[in-house]
Structures are given as C-alpha cells and as structure tokens.
Specification:
The chain has 540 residues and is of the alpha/beta class. Helices cover 48% and strands 14% of the residues.
Length: 540
C-alpha cells in the first residue's frame, strides 16, 4: 500500500471513497463527462472521529458564510474556485487531538517562513487543479483526438508526481509527506511504465539531418545522415514484429490505426497508475485549505487586523483557559468599517463568564468571536487575534440566534429550554459553551430561576462558558457570591457619553441603557408622535 500524503491528520487518513474515485478516474479516461463528481467526492470525504458536533454550533456561527466571504484563493492573478463543502467538513470536524492541531500549525508556520516552499505549494496546487480539469474536459472537446488528450492526462500526472518529489524534499513539516509519497510512487512498476511510454511517445526516434543553405539564406539541400529508433525503450518493437501484429489484428477482423493502438496502450497504463492518483485528489482540497487560510489572514491584514497561530496550553495546565489579544469577529469584515478588536482573558482554567452591557454594545459579537477563535485555532488555522493562548476543548455548544418557523409547537422559552436540555444531555464534559441572552423569553422571576439553574449545572460539566444576560440585578447579586460557582464577569466599556467602545472590562453593567438605545434608533415619544400625526388624515 502506497503512503497517503495526508496534510491534515497526524495519523494519515484517506477520507475519500477509494473505489468510487477509482471508477470516476476510469470513466474519465474512457471519455465520460463527469462534471462536478470529483468536486462532490472531495466534499463528501469522511473525516477522523471528532467529539465536536456541527449541529451544536455551525448555524449560530454562520460557518458557511464565513467560508464563502473569507476563504478565497488567487494564484498569479487567477481565481480558483474553493470547494466550500470540503472546507466546511474540515472545520466542523474539529480535532480534539492536540498533536493533530500542532501538525497543521507546523505546516502553516513553514509556509509562512519559507517563501520558496510557499511558491512550491502554489505551483503544486495549480498543477493538481490542472490535472483534475483535464479529467473534467467535456467529451466534445476531445473527440477529435482522444489519444492526445489522454496522453496529456498522463503527462500532467507525471508532472504532479515529479513536483511532489522535487520540491518538498527539504520540508521539515507534514509537507514532507508529499515527497515521501512521490518517492513511493516513483519506485513502482506502474510509474516506470508511465515514464517509458511518455519517453517513447515524445522520442520515437532520433534523426540526424544536415541542411545546406545558399548565400541568399534559402535551403539548397537536405541530407539525412542517420535515423535511429530508441531501441532501449520497453515499448520499442522490431519492424517485423510491428508488421506481424498489424497483420494478426487484420486477420482477426480488427482494423486499428497507430493512433488507436496508442490510445489502448495509454488507457492500460493509466488504469494501472490510477490507484496512486486517488490520494492526490484529496491532497488538492487540503492544499486549498492552507492556501485559502493564508489569503484570509492577508485580507485581514489589509484591514489592519492581525491573525495568529495560537499557542495551546496542556490539559493539566492551571493557567487561564483563554487569552486573546486584539480579538475581532471575522464575520464583520464585510462591513465598511473594520471590526474593533478587544482583548479578553479569563482568570480560571474552567471559567463561567457572565457578560453584561447595553443592547448593540458588542456582547453577542464578542462571544461569537471567542467561539470562532476556538474553532479556527483548534482546527490548526489562524485565529482572529494578534496573539492567543487556548486550551483544547472537547466540543462547542453555541446558542446565539433564534429561528422562527410556521409549524413550531413550542414558544421561544420552550425552544430555549429544549436547547438547554440538549446541552446537558449530550455535550461532552470539558467543552466550550456560549449562550446569548439566556432565558430572555419569559418574565424576569422565572427567567432568573432558570438562569441560576443553568449556571449551577454548567459548573458540574466543567466548561469554558460565556453567558450574556440582561438580568443585571441578579448578575450583581451573583457577583457578591461568585466564588461558589466560579464565576467571572465582563461588562461593556462605555465612553464619557455612555456609548459603547466595543471594549470589555471586569464587572457587571449598571444599566442596559435601553432609553439611550431607543433614542439612537428614533424610538421616542416625540419622534413617534410626529410620525403618527404626519400620517393622520386631515379633517374637513
């Protein structure tokens, strides 16, 4: 079995369906139009087991939107389409094995530090993309000379394998697997046959020709001195043998041109080599992830925002669970003004942080940014902050947005309580939990009771938790006795005019500033009275 040049997992893993992809490769060489089937095969690839469950966070963190708006790939001015489904599958199957996260980080670091290696990765991606594009070429584009087209596929396959071998030998990270995979492929009989066929096709014979020129520069004569066929090639056969083969086919009722015979040989060589190409299809999506992540980082840099490769604390480290400097929410990059970074740091290693402050003060965006920093950082990619120290989380549970549907049975509170029950029944111990406006869909006395219940139960599952609330009086009461539940408190920092600075400091907010928010949005008695009077029908 050839080694798998897996660039995402510490233990090499082939997620794509080997048999299905082998069938696709075979059908492509025979001329079937396969459209997006390669794309679909990569998107449906399996991932190693993870305790992170996408249904608990992907919609609330808008993972699809994050990929669509932030991950793109341009090489030498050419835009390459991203396989968004593949990226989503990788991000939502977040590894809980720290060694896998560190394995991916080391690849990113080496690409950051070595421009030569980065250029090699980009070139390999281009040629891999070209190889798949040849497979997807519609049949009507190649019907005139299928042999030439299939030879192009073999040539491109050899180029990809040789680039893997030649460009990544000095790599110290997981990129060296590309070289090791190519070494194994080049040692096979199938590769030797491929080389022999391509050499035979490009150098059937050597012709020694003498050209005589006149004083006016015109050709006066041609003298063929020698014509030698490349007899050392395994595909060379004596003229008599070639003639006998053609006669035997003719007597059997088969009439084939030299081009048809060549195409049969090309198909046979390709079919024998195709098992070695299957892992390379997966490799395309993996290279795409790293190169697109770098483009994401560069785009943030153009807005004056820094991204970093986080440091991860050991599980038994008693230090803070989260430290993020200049943290920002990447979902806000599409706005005209760049998001405002802030710094967050927990005190305990399994903290429950209660976040308070006015509406539109940045509470929801903050806890969303924290969850995205954990998701991206633990996935082995850049986190949206200038510096980060994190801890591997066993899972992520996010409840930020409320979706209404026409056929829902429960009201808002009922649906929220169902989510809370799911949290405690199914969430792994040692996970990150992010809850926004907990129990705001009921009267304060009942909401506070459920709010307190959730905090007490959270302490038992040892999470890193962030919970926003407008129950300010109750939050201040909890602050007086916070050590029992191990609570920490953050509040929105206001300027002198009591407007949010989108920064956060310790403590509990004194007011939600509902009146100021209403005034900012034009919801005052005077404004609305004027609107009502302006629409009143005139009396006669």
């Amino acid at each position: 079995m050839l080694p798998i040049p897996d660039l995402l997992n510490r233990e090499s893993f082939l997620g794509i369906d080997r048999k299905a992809l082998s069938d696709l490769l075979g059908l492509a060489i025979l001329g079937r139009e396969i459209g997006t089937e390669f794309h679909d095969a990569m998107a449906d690839a399996e991932t190693p087991d993870s305790t992170w469950r996408p249904e608990f966070f992907e919609e609330d963190l808008f993972v699809d939107r994050l990929i669509e708006e932030s991950f793109e790939l341009r090489i030498d001015g050419v835009h390459y389409p991203i396989n968004e489904r593949f990226l989503r599958r990788v991000l939502t199957a977040t590894p809980t094995d720290l060694e896998t996260t560190l394995f991916r980080q080391e690849i990113l670091r080496e690409l950051d530090e070595d421009e030569r290696l980065l250029a090699a990765a980009r070139r390999l991606y281009r040629e891999l993309f070209g190889l798949l594009s040849l497979h997807r070429t519609p049949r009507y584009h190649r019907v005139l000379d299928s042999a030439a087209h299939n030879l192009d596929i073999l040539k491109q396959s050899r180029l990809v394998i040789d680039l893997m071998h030649d460009l990544f030998e000095s790599s110290r990270s997981g990129l060296r697997r590309l070289h090791e995979g190519a070494v194994a492929i080049r040692e096979t009989d199938e590769y030797a046959t491929l080389v022999a066929l391509l050499d035979y096709e490009s150098r059937l014979a050597e012709l020694n020709l003498v050209i005589t020129l006149g004083a006016d520069g015109r050709i006066r004569g041609l003298d063929v001195r020698s014509l030698e066929e490349c007899r050392d090639n395994p595909f060379w056969a004596r003229p008599v043998k070639r003639l006998w083969s053609r006669l035997r086919l003719g007597m059997g009722g088969y009439s084939m041109s030299n081009r048809e015979l060549l195409n049969r040989v090309v198909e046979r060589v390709y079919v024998s080599l195709s098992p070695a190409l299957i892992p390379l299809i997966q490799m395309l999506g993996q290279l795409e992830l790293y190169l697109a992540a770098r483009a994401f980082r560069d785009r943030c840099g153009e807005r004056g925002l820094s991204m970093c490769i986080p440091e991860f604390r050991p599980v038994d480290d008693p230090g803070p669970a989260i430290e993020c400097e200049h943290l920002f929410n990447p979902l806000l990059l599409g706005q005209e003004e760049a998001p405002v970074p802030c710094t967050v740091r927990t005190t305990g290693n399994v903290p429950i942080t209660v976040v308070t402050g006015p509406n539109s003060g940045g509470k929801t965006r903050l806890i969303q940014a924290i969850a995205l920093a954990q998701l991206l950082g633990q996935s082995g990619l850049y986190a949206p902050c200038s510096r980060a120290r994190l801890r591997v989380q066993r899972g992520l549970f996010v409840s930020l947005i409320e979706r209404e549907s026409a056929d829902q049975v429960e009201g808002r509170l009922g649906r929220e309580l169902v989510r809370i029950r799911t949290l405690f029944e199914e969430m792994e111990h040692g996970s990150m939990v992010v809850l926004d406006e907990l129990c705001s869909g009921t009267n304060p006395s009942e909401g506070i009771e459920v709010f307190t219940l959730v905090l007490q139960l959270l302490r038992r599952v040892q999470p890193v938790a962030y919970v926003t609330t407008h129950f300010l009086d109750h939050a201040r009461a909890l602050q007086q006795n916070h050590t029992r539940l191990g609570l920490e408190f953050l509040q929105v920092q206001l300027d002198d005019e009591r407007r949010s600075t989108y920064q956060f400091k310790d403590g509990v907010a004194r007011t939600s500033l509902a009146a100021l928010t209403a005034e900012r949005l034009g919801v005052t008695f005077e404004n609305l009275s004027a609107a009502v009077d302006g629409r009143r029908a005139p009396t006669r």
